[in-house]
Amino acid sequence: MRRGFVRVPGGFLLQVPEDWWELLESLTQQLVDLLRSEDGVPDAAEPPTENPFDPFQAWEAEFGDATEPMPEHEDPALRRLFPNPYPDDAEAAAEHRRFSEPDQRRRKITDAERVLAHLTDPAAQYEEDATVIPDADVELWLRTLNALRLVLASRLGIETGEDAEQLFELEEGDPRWMMAAVMDALAELQTQLIVLGD
After folding, report:
1. CA–CA separation, 157 vs 136, rounded Å?
2. Statement: residue 172 has pLDDT above 70
3. Partners of 4 in the β-ladder
4. Suppose 11 and one of 45, 90, 119, 134 were both cysteines; which one would form an S-S bond, judging by CB atoms 3.0 to 4.6 Å apart?
C-alpha cells in the first residue's frame, strides 16, 4: 500500500490506491456484518417498541432474561473483539458479557458504520479514492482499524508474539501472506494517524 494519511486543516486526508480502497471498504463491511451476527448473542440494538418511556421495558430489551446465561462466542474473532476478563470463572464471564457487551457491540458497529460512510458516501469523499477524516472522527477510525487488525489476527491464528514474528517468514505464495500484508498495512495507517495527530 502506498500513500495513506496526510494532515490537512481540520482533519486528515486519506488517499490509497483503488484496490486498497475497495479492500478497506470490504473489510469494514465484513466487520459490521460480523458484529451484527447472532452467534448466541441477543440483538441489543433493537429499541423497545411498546413504550419507549418505560425503563423496565428498556432494560428487558437490553439484557433479556437474566436467567439465561450469555454463552461464550464460538467465532474466535468475536472472542478477540470481546475478550473475557474472567477466563477461570464461567459464571462471572457470562454476566460480564451480558451487561457490558451490548454497549461495546453497539459502539463498535457505530464506529465501523461511520468509517464505512467515509469510504462509500460520495458526499464525504474529497476526490476519487480519497476522503477527509475530520478530527472528531479520528478516534473511531483508530478503534475500527484496531478491530480489523484483531479480526485478521484471529483468522491468522495469532495468539503470541512468536506467532506474530512467524508472519515475517511467510512467502508470497502462502495463502496467509496477503492477509498478513493487509494487517501490516492497517497497522501502518493506525501509526500514521497517531503520529500525525500528536
Report:
1. 34
2. yes
3. 15
4. 134
Using CA of residue 35, residue 40, residue 41, residue 42, what is the dihedral sign?
positive
Report the Cα 135 to chain-centroid distance in Å. 19
Phi, psi of 125 (to 5 degrees): -90, 140
Distances from the Cα of 189 to the Cα of 29, 80, 110, 122, angstroms: 18, 21, 20, 22
**Distance between CA atoms of 169 and 160, rounded to whole angstroms?**
15
- pTM of this prediction? 0.79
The answer to whether residues 188 and 1 touch, using CB atoms and an 8 Å cutoff, is yes
Report the alpha-carbon distance of residue 20 to residue 4 in Å, rounded. Answer: 10
CA 66, 68, 73, 78 dihedral sign is negative
Instruction: Say how far apart CA 34 and CA 47 lie, in whole Å.
Output: 20
Res 87: pLDDT:
76
What is the mean pLDDT of the segment spanning 59-79?
65
Report d(CA 147, CA 144) in Å as an integer. 5
C-alpha cell of residue 185: 498495512
Tell me the per-residue pLDDT of 129-169, one tens digit each, with 9 for 90 and over: 788 999 999 999 999 999 999 999 999 888 887 877 787 77
